[in-house]
Write a structure and sequence with these properties.
It contains 29 helices and nine strands. A hairpin with a 5-residue loop joins strand 7 and strand 8. The protein is globular.
Length: 708
């Protein structure tokens, strides 16, 4: 998912420095003529994408910053004593025009970027970083916040108001408000540097991904690849002016290639291309990593922390690195034997099929799929006909209806940023308008890889008492339809849809007073709970029976196939868990450094995740160089949160299993006690209110078959 900071909404996707200059107007009168400073004349005041000009972004940001500065000055110069309304709420509601520009720009920078937008981002990012620092380092503003904070116990605040006050106070402290004048200037420069390095890292990964293509001219080398996937590759080659079959490093191309292609040399070739992204040449991220982790460490030291992880974790459920490592180590100990046995099983079936070698990473998907088919009689090609995208949409939307009473109506009058994007009005169980949902399903050159949820407008109660409803987007990279086939999803793609849709529900049903506490504005290690929880329904017959039909015959998915899906749910769960743990260990290693890093990136990586590796390392490959999550995506010292939230979701779903997967009372309590609350209270308080106690790792171990 893609999140924004209230004052400086940084891009998840990066940019490259460019000398392109855009026209800039500076007067308020001229700014009134741009779309961002007018009332949107669209359904639900959605962003009028069709009226945004690229040349509007930079001058609009400059003007919006000026207006925000004026609002900050008004708070500071208020002659009345600082109180919750004239300081804390006033600050919360400030900067709406800047938010307007940023919501539009940075979401499109991830979903529909271009060289021109990259150039604009490089201009905008330093301006926003400086503006954010001007706010959090403003002594007079912090003085008023501190005055209110000192009175917090006598102000008779609601839980949500206390949370907002605490969040603002902590934000200022954690962003240098208590630093000396000299150190504040150092802090400013460090923030600017980090921002640009994160942008550079992400753009290097995107460009490296887009630059690569593998064209296969001999069909015999595609032995094992299903005809449907050959057709997709042939169409991709034709679109690029190539003859033969074209494969690239996007998910819908790379994953099935590694799973089905019998030609081991081809598998190795594509594997090496994927895992050496941004490793060498002009897009080399190794020097970026060194500079970035060292700059983050310097920033943490400046703020009184020995390491960057402690700086980050002070604002997480985990609280400190000891709790993170405790979780990672417990899971490693619980799953290591299972993972080792799974590798032996895959090696055994590889040997039975004539492989006279030890399996390497480029062999894993191929032989693991053969083992899965042999054990359970199930594979992606068998399942895909029952997961046609349009039917899956109906099923996923219908799940939200059954659980939370939401309904969805497509509205073609709502402007979208690309012809493939669809916009839906969302209504609650009473028929009341609740949100706008955008869906964007297929890969494009201007879209970064992966899948995420984001917002174009957050939920809040505005100064007029109006409940401003959210505008939410889910973005995927699913297999495209062809001339002969609709988009048929793999089971993994189906669960990805559920995951991101779970995030979107969190955003859509929000019922808070303040935008910075609404929806998914929660602790990073809590935000994955609603998304991972929804994945559980993918294995439930009662849910699948409602929409999973063969795209050609209309026949419902056979009961025996559903049983195979359930039976195979824990297939290679040990391997998958150790893979996630290895990423968590790697992330923590980079961000628990206490001295500047001057070593070799490859050697550091191997040492960091060695105990969680289950297959041999391959020389020259690097996860770090393409690890967008931790170096540009907001998950630094936070990748563990996927496993942290998995413990929560397994524990929470056990309640649904006990009471019924569509039990109205359970779903209603989860909605009102967790989803609607956003970040208005501490997440553990919310969770315990729903569950009755703190989560236990046991539910996850039982779900994965590790514990009986």
């Amino acid at each position: 998912m893609n999140k924004f900071n209230k004052f400086c909404k940084k891009a998840i996707n990066g940019v490259i420095l460019s000398s392109i200059m855009l026209a800039c107007t500076d007067t308020k009168q001229e700014m009134e003529e741009t779309i961002f400073f007018k009332e949107y004349q669209t359904p639900h005041k959605t962003i009028p994408f069709d009226k945004i000009r690229l040349e509007d972004y930079l001058p609009s940001v400059k003007e919006a910053i000026k207006r925000h500065d004026a609002e900050i000055e008004a708070i500071i110069n208020n002659p009345n004593p600082a109180n919750f309304e004239n300081t804390i709420v006033a600050l919360e509601r400030s900067g709406k025009y800047l938010s307007r520009v940023q919501y539009a720009f940075y979401n499109l920078l991830s979903a529909e970027t271009s060289a021109e937008m990259d150039s604009i981002a490089n201009e905008i990012s330093p301006l926003e970083t400086e503006h954010s620092n001007n706010i959090t380092l403003n002594e007079n503003l912090f003085k008023r916040i501190a005055e209110v904070y000192a009175q917090k116990d006598s102000l008779n605040l609601t839980n949500e108001q206390r949370q907002l006050l605490q969040k603002q106070y902590d934000m200022f402290v954690n962003n240098g408000a208590n630093l000396s004048a000299e150190n504040k200037e150092i802090y400013r420069e460090l923030c600017k540097k980090i921002s640009l390095l994160e942008l550079q890292f992400a753009q290097n990964v995107l460009n490296a991904t887009n630059q690569y293509k593998l064209v296969v001219s001999e069909e015999s080398r595609l032995d094992g690849l299903p005809q449907t996937l050959k057709d997709v590759a042939a169409e991709k080659a034709k679109a690029k002016g190539e003859s033969g079959w074209l494969f690239d490093l996007t998910y819908p191309s790379y994953v099935p290639f590694m799973k089905y292609i019998k030609d081991r040399d081809l598998r190795k070739e594509l594997y090496m291309a994927y895992n050496t992204k941004a490793v060498n040449g002009e897009l080399d991220n190794k020097p970026v990593i060194k500079e970035l982790v060292n700059t983050r460490l310097t920033l943490a030291n400046l703020l009184g922390h020995k390491e960057y992880a402690s700086y980050v974790l002070s604002r997480r459920m985990a609280e400190d690195k000891e709790h993170v490592y405790d979780l990672l180590d417990k899971l490693l100990n619980a799953y290591k034997n299972c993972a080792t046995n799974e590798v032996l099983e895959v090696q055994k079936i590889a040997n039975s099929q004539g492989a006279n070698f030890d399996i390497m990473p480029w062999d894993w998907s191929f032989y693991a799929d053969k083992l899965k088919d042999a054990k359970y009689g199930i594979n992606d090609e068998l399942l895909k006909p029952y997961f046609e995208l349009e039917n899956v949409k109906k099923g996923v939307f219908g799940l939200a209806t059954k659980l939370y009473g939401l309904s969805f109506k497509k509205n073609e009058s709502i402007p979208v940023y690309h012809p493939e994007v669809e916009a839906y009005e969302v209504f609650d169980s009473t028929g009341k308008y609740t949100a706008v949902l955008y869906t964007d399903f297929h890969p494009r050159e201007g879209k970064r890889g992966g899948a995420w949820m984001t917002e174009y407008q957050g939920q809040c109660i505005n100064e007029d008492g109006e409940n401003v409803r959210p505008h939410v987007s889910i973005v995927m990279n699913f297999t495209r339809p062809t001339d002969s086939l609709p988009s048929l999803l793999t089971f993994d793609e189906f669960t990805t849809f559920l995951h991101e849709f779970g995030h979107s529900i969190h955003g859509m049903v929000s019922q808070t007073n303040y935008e910075s506490l609404s929806g998914t504005n929660v602790y990073r290690d809590f935000v994955e709970l609603p998304s991972q929880l929804l994945e559980n329904w993918a294995y439930e017959k009662e849910f699948l029976d409602g929409f999973a039909v063969h795209y050609q015959t209309g026949e419902p998915i056979p009961a025996e196939l559903i049983e195979k899906i359930k039976a195979s749910a824990n297939f290679n769960t040990g391997y998958s868990t150790l893979r996630q743990l290895s990423f968590g260990y790697l992330d923590m290693a980079w961000h628990t450094l206490t001295e500047p890093f001057e070593g070799d990136v490859f050697e550091f990586e191997q040492s960091a995740w060695k105990k969680a590796l289950i297959l041999p390392s391959v020389e020259g490959t690097s996860m770090s160089c393409q690890f967008n999550h931790i170096f540009s995506g907001g998950y630094s010292a936070g990748y563990y949160s996927y496993k942290w939230a998995e413990v929560l979701d397994a524990d929470a779903f056990s309640v649904f299993q006990k009471n019924g997967i569509f039990d109205n009372e359970t779903a209603s309590r989860f909605k009102t006690e967790i989803l609607e609350k956003g970040g208005s209270e501490h997440p553990m308080i919310l969770y315990k209110r729903f569950r009755g106690n703190e989560p236990s790792i046991d539910a996850l171990l039982r779900r994965n078959g590790i514990m009986k």
